[in-house]
Amino acid sequence: MNQKSLQLAKELEAELKNRILPFWAEHTPDWEYGGFIGYISADMNVEREHFKSGVICARILWTFSKAYHHYKNEEYLKIARHAYEFLTTAFWDKENGGIYWTVDYQGNCESGKKQIYAQAFAIYGLAEYYRASGEQDALKMAMELFRYLERYGYDAEYGGYIDALDKDWSTLEDTSLSDKDMNVAKTMNTNLHVIEGYTNLFSITADENVRTALKKITEDMVQYILDDSSGHFLMYFDKDWTKRSDMVSYGHDIEGSWLLEEAAAVLGDAELYARIKATALQMAEMVYQDGCDLQNGGLYGEMEHGNPVGDDKEWWTQAEAVVGFYNAYTLSGDGKYLDCAAEIWEYIKSHLLDYENGEWFWGVSLQGCAHENEEKVGPWKCPYHNGRMCFEIINRVKAEEK
User: What contacts 376, CB < 8 A, 6 or more positions away?
Assistant: First the structure.
């Protein structure tokens, strides 16, 4: 067994158990109104009346369900149950079905927009909660969301999933995922996370309808979203897959490389798996060549026309790089990918861990200075990327030891 792998897994387990999970369990549950505090600044200023995000509730549900399934610690189950109850009451649209985009701090609907991205994460979290707890209603709701996505979100004409619909699942003008994203019919980001949710759901249910949908979106992702000439995902599209941008997201590329391979492995289709494995390695290699900052360390965020977009290296891109490069090492046996995963973990330790207040900073500048004005907890900041990084490496190394 490679000693570098063992050391990496040991350190990530300590990070998970001693820093990430305790921070979120101690500081974020809103025991008065339900769910989780919507915003905590980097210096730990708590905004109790900030709105709450359905995506973050679903991601916390996934994280603590995973933690309970892994460690059987009842405190983790308590947090997972708290997330489950809020997701299925405050966020659940009892009239139209589906998950609201946001609610206010008291749990009243603030934005009923049906962002497909949020529905996919709810499936991801609910399926994991069922795996951990055996709660049948969680699985029932996950399958109900799956049927909503297939009925309203899937584009039967061109393939793939549209980005968003209105509260009643009707057409919506502004489908953009965030202020940073283009308002287009389809995005790489939404379709990638549909794969993620469906992979988890199929791994639990072996449902043939889920299998069919997962295989189709995996194939669509490679056919329409992956640029064969570069090995990168394209990001924004019209309904007919006409590209709207040349921007590249290294974080999504390296994350997508292992999520696609995981989907193909779960499907158990040998021919598809062979194709996706080659694709995953191509993507990892392109990120390895172009996305790693050889001078300052870490992974760049987004690039357009060969230049960095913005001045930051966000926490989630570094976490996904550790998993993605470790996956490439596992698939290829090439030690350069293991070295890269270990080096990025060292970069995380040096630049992103908040040793004073806990958890991780949102990000650092390209030169490595922390963005201390960004949130520690917020609509996009949660324990899912860094927590999952830890679980993935721990479980992969454990499997290799057998």
Answer: 40, 41, 42, 44, 354, 357, 359, 361, 362
Q: Is 237 left (phi over 0), alpha (psi -120 to 50) or beta?
A: beta
* Cα(134)–Cα(91) distance, integer angstroms: 21
> Does 394 have pLDDT greater than 90?
yes
Radius of gyration over every alpha carbon of the chain, rounded to an integer in angstroms: 20
Strand locations in 32-129 (E): 39-41, 46-47, 52-53, 102-103, 109-111, 114-115
**pLDDT tens-digit series, residues 230-273:** 899 999 999 999 999 999 999 999 999 999 999 999 999 999 99
Average predicted confidence (pLDDT) for the chain: 96
Distances from the Cα of 153 to the Cα of 105, 122, 143, 253, 256, angstroms: 28, 15, 14, 23, 21
120 burial via Cβ count (<10 Å: 0-12, 13-18, 19+): buried
The better pLDDT of the pair 306, 314 is held by: 314
Rounded CA-CA distance 21/24 in Å is 5
pLDDT confidence tier of residue 86, bands split at 50, 70 and 90: very high
> What CA–CA distance (Å, rounded) separates 13 from 340?
19
User: What is the rounded (10 degree) CA torsion for 322, 129, 72, 265?
Assistant: -50
Handedness of CA 327, 331, 335, 336 (dihedral sign): negative
Q: Name the nearest CA neighbour of 52 among 356, 304, 378.
A: 378
Q: What is the mean pLDDT of residues 32-54?
A: 97
